[in-house]
Amino acid sequence: AQSVTQPDIHITVSEGASLELRCNYSYGATPYLFWYVQSPGQGLQLLLKYFSGDTLVQGIKGFEAEFKRSQSSFNLRKPSVHWSDAAEYFCAVVNPSGSARQLTFGSGTQLTVLP
Amino acid sequence: KAGVTQTPRYLIKTRGQQVTLSCSPISGHRSVSWYQQTPGQGLQFLFEYFSETQRNKGNFPGRFSGRQFSNSRSEMNVSTLELGDSALYLCASSLMTGGADEQFFGPGTRLTVL
Q1: Which of B35, B48, B91, B94 has the fewest CB atoms lying closer than 10 Å?
Q2: Contact in structure between A22 and A8 (CB atoms under 8 Å)
Q3: What is the largest CA-CA distance in chain B?
Q4: Do B103 and A32 touch (CB under 8 A)?
Q5: Are residues A104 and B94, on separate chains, in Cβ contact within 8 Å?
Q6: Cβ neighbour number for residue B30 with a 10 Å cutoff
Q7: What pLDDT, in 10s, does the model give residues B92-101?
């Protein structure tokens, strides 16, 4: 069964500092990969996704992620964090074969931004 | 274009009762999926509907059921509520069914079971 690991439960960074959130997946083939963000009381918003091609993916709000097949990783990065980035971030995968739309999520990383 | 809407936003029930949650997808979207979010178990897939047919189901007991109407609106029902059913229930819609389509999430329904 596919699984997603986000090893960092909570990360604290200062505003303006760079950010990297880690995500590792376990799956037989390369799944479709996603990063979502959830602000308090809100649903999930898609930041970016990777299906194939260029391994560096650009998303919204200045985020990017790099797919590394050899490490089964899809880490999320941002060069300069803003206070409004404080939220919970989820990495997710989808089986690329068949018609299933089921997202399998990691446990999330809570980001705190210090002024 | 209006986003995914879920009603009600908050709900309080007691053990043993049943509850129905509603989800209206983005106009034109035909696939609706449901997820349960709890602090202990995280985000877990419940089921997916496409063109009124359940396409996929997660590992939840039969107390959890759903359906989709011809206008793509979906409902999920939980019968004989247990304390552990307290969660945020999220609905997501996508244009088609298939792994490459982006799923758009609603704000969720917060269910509290007392």
Answers
A1: B94
A2: yes
A3: 39
A4: no
A5: no
A6: 16
A7: 999 875 566 7
- pLDDT number for residue B98: 58
End-to-end CA distance of chain B: 37
Q: Taking a C-beta distance cutoff of 8 angstroms, is the pair A67, A74 a contact?
A: yes
Which of these, A84, A91, A79, lies nearest to A19 by C-alpha position?
A: A79
pLDDT computed for residue A31 by the predictor: 86
**A84-98 average pLDDT score:** 90
In a mutagenesis test of the A interface, which of B23, B57, B105, B110 is the best target, namely the one with the most A β-carbons within 10 Å?
B105
**Sequence letter at residue A27:** Y
3-state helix vs strand vs coil in chain A, percent to 5:
10, 50, 40
Pairs of CB atoms within 8 A across A/B: 67
CA dihedral of residues A80, A83, A88, A92 (deg, nearest 10): -30
CA distances to A88, B20, B57, B67, B71 from A42, rounded to whole Å, are 10, 20, 24, 24, 25
CA angle A8-A13-A14, nearest 5°? 175
Distances (CA, A) of A82 to A62, A79, A88, A108, B61: 10, 10, 14, 19, 42
Q: How confident is the model at residue B73 (pLDDT cuts 50, 70, 90)?
A: very high
Nearest to B62 by CA among B74, B78, B44, B51: B78
